[in-house]
Design a protein that fits this description.
Elements lengths: L3 H23 L1 H14 L3 H24 L2 H21 L5 H20 L2
Helix pairs in contact: 1-2, 1-3, 1-5, 2-3, 3-4, 4-5
Amino acid sequence: MELLWFYIAIMLAISDEIHSLLMWNFLRDFYTIFGGLVQEMVYSNLQAWLVHESLEALFHFVILSIVFFSIEIGILAGLVHFVIDVIHSLTIKHMSHLEHRALHFVFESIFFIMIFGF
């Protein structure tokens, strides 16, 4: 039980890689068209971006809920990933893939250590 935080952080990183692989390699055309539809339905680029981040958080919620058989872990994982994505997108403009992954892993680990590490 003491390493649950680590397993969740690792699985969230894997889930993010799966999301990137699926969306940008296999469903690229659909994702581009869907993004255009979302852009037409909302009133600003900010809202379209928040819809994108929300759908990504929903993806992580589903994956982690299934893997850990826990809605609570899924909700927490989706929420923390969403918050980190929003904050770093607003504050840090240029990051390499490795820097992005490390940033997420560090803060997601800290978050889950605070919840499940003690």
